[in-house]
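Quick bug: P-type Cu(+) transporter output formatted oddly.
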Amino acid sequence: MPKYPKGVYVSSNEEKKAIFTVNGMSCSACAGSVEKATKRLAGIKEAVVDLLNNRAQVIFYPSFINEETIRETIEDVGFQATLITEETNDKTSQVCRIRIKGMTCTSCSTTVESALQLIPGVQKARVALATEEAEIQYDPWISTYNQLLESIEDTGFEAILISTGEDRSKILLKVDGVHTDNSMTIIESSLRALPGVEDVDIDPELKKLSVSYKSDIIGPRNFIEVIESTGSGQFKAMIFPEGGGKQSHRQEEIEYCRRSFLWSLVFTIPVFLTSMVFMYIPGLKDGLDIKVVNMLSIGEILRWVLSTPVQFIIGRRFYSGSYKALRHGSATMDVLIALGTNAAYFYSVYSAFRAATSPTFKSTDFFETSSMLISFILLGKYLEVLAKGKTSEAIAKLMNLTPEMATLLQFDDEGNVVKEEEIDSRLIQKNDVIRILPGAKVACDGFVIWGQSHVNESMITGESRPVAKKKGDMVIGGTMNENGVLHIRATRVGSESALSQIVRLVESAQMAKAPVQKFADRISKYFVPLVIILSVSTWLAWFLAGKYDGYPKSWIPSSVDSFQLALQFGISVMVIACPCALGLATPTAVMVGTGVGASRGVLIKGGHALESAQKVNCIVFDKTGTLTMGKPVVVTTRLFKSMVLRQFYELVAAAELNSEHPLAKAIVEYAKKFREDEENPRWPEVQDFESITGHGVKAVVHNKKLIVGNKSLMLDEGISVPVDADEILAEAEELAQTGILVSIDGVLSGVVAISDPVKPGAREIISLLKTMKVESKLVTGDNWGTANAIAKEVGISDVIAEAKPEDKAEKVKELQTLGKVVAMVGDGINDSPALVAADVGMAIGAGTDIAIESADIVLMKSNLEDVITAIDLSRRTFGRIRLNYFWAFGYNLLGIPIAAGALFPSTGFRLPPWVAGAAMAASSVSVVCSSLLLKNYKRPKKLDNLEIGGIRVES
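Here's what came back:
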């Protein structure tokens, strides 16, 4: 059956509807530009853009226009558009990550990205030069990951598959003892028959199995047991040795570059000595000047022999890179190096042949130029990969937090431990019970079922103080148990763990390009061709000037003629230009910046978030859980009808039990005090439950109709609020408390006052933001009285209260129309629309998953101080990016004229090609090292000097 876009239908007059996701819109002006551009197209009946959900709905006439043309039009406006296809039981979108070897500059990554985007079924492709990885979103029903790999290989680079799909609940196993393909087939069949196994891929050559499974049903230990019992004990299964990880790949690359550089030195040093040192030592000079054939000397033959392996064996990577790039119509740094070194080498060969065939021709060779040029470039590449390896140290440290081994406990029916077993931590399955000894790392996410201790979670959350853990408390894999023994039950293992998700988020952030990088990408398309034109023009200008006496003969050094002088200038221009520095300016800084943020508990989701955060001049704060502790407690209760307080709270708790709102949870927790004799109290059955977002809930409990919420909800439901209740509400609001009204069977029956104290230091943080020229606003769903009291306490003057989720988003958009760059800080489900609408959404880490998913920045420690850290780190990172660009552009703008001989007429200074090559290599290294200085980031001193309640805040 053919697939149609989601929601597409053909009506009687041949109308069609298509829905697109539109990424990159930040304000109503963006949405308006998309809508306007779409409506201008012929055959469009209607176009509506939903900014909050990043969607565009278009009704059109297919006889005039198609979905692809509409999508391209949206992309031309400057946004990423994807047609939403119908939802089926099968997955129609999959993410594939591929490591790419051999990319040297932005032109390389752009070439690969363009090639991937041309493959049918590819919805989005991102190629990161700094991480040397590609992330491709594609339709697995149209294209396969093998096609993606082939496409990258066709562009001239080596491609290695890292992962396909989300790779959650997937494990690689190696099987020893397999001697025939039939054995692997039997093992595959045995695994496929297991409940919960979704897919099995086999690699007969490596004896490798890839098993995708449902972790709730089955796990890796089950697979090993099945494999080892299949072949009467002849098979042995284990987790496949990790050799293809990012760090091992980086080490391989470092070792390869080091080896290439050292081999080049073996040949280049003698070339350098014979051409530039021995020529000034009388005895050695006479020996090197001995003529072998006509005017061809021993010294020239030695240089020729020694430089040839450097040019064609050690330097073959530049030839292959150039060939592949030119074959696909692009020009990379390899092209410049190949042209420059070939010009020097083959002119030297020509000179040597002329000397060998002529009794009078006195040759001058540049063999040292080509070999030294390649050696310096290889040195630069070696230093560059060393430095680039340090940019991703944050991820490496995170990945190494999980311990290699874990102690698995097995129990009898009475709950006694009957067996302890040391297992690979990657073999932990859901619901396993793991023992954590003092001083050991927690092996996986889970909750404590026995024991008490303190756990240091600073490596995950950045919180320096150990957190007390007792029965029922959650623990995070990779954290450090300090002083007690804990038994934990595993809940999230492998790639589902919090640590894995943080790593994946940081990796994804480092893949994402900052908008400022598009500028460098555009330049890179024309950079190399322009340099080649400048190089040829330089050579031609100096050559013609020398031939037609355009400058005095005294300018020409004694060892060369006018042609050779012109050739040296041309080669110097070609090899001094550095597209690498431009290409690395942004991604290396983003990598280090996001890594530093992650190590401090501030997860920044990529370059776009960094770029937007550094421009923020207005912050909208949610109240509950953001400015306040987020752990509200019931402080007073007033009843307006005669009933037992326990009975009242039993009804109210039952109604609020299904609500996710913090105030509802506070009521339920308070109600448990009346039933302390029950560990897990059972509440009455609830019927017709309804949540009215931003107002309260309605439900039927024990055949009584309950309405629990704010005053506006009561008035909407036609329930009168007596004067006494109004006075109690006003009194609570003055004390910064929230008053919850409870109606039973249409009669107001009580008021519950709930207090949620302000976070320590909130006032000081708001004050510090003012000094950073950032305005603060408060938007909350709570009542006006409480909102104003909290705002006054923290020092915020602009308040919006009783706001529904859409009202919060509207407030954000209203501020954006005033020209402000807005950040939204929130933690709840009702904050999600505003987090999406804001230029930068900041989610408090203790908040809900949906808020964290909607945000651009996640503050893992749930500290308000990290709002300042996030903005300051973004500003520092972008300051570094600007410095990198200034250096990269300045280097090329100054270096190219000097290499072309701009200073030669006035000062006699000229840049030999090998020096120009060394300068080019140094420029890209310096940009990476400049980015690495961000690793020394210190948060603002104002925060270090901040005292909250007499206690100094420490990072």
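Actually, after a second look the formatting is fine. Residues 1-13, 86-91, 947-955 have pLDDT under 50 and may be disordered. Closing.
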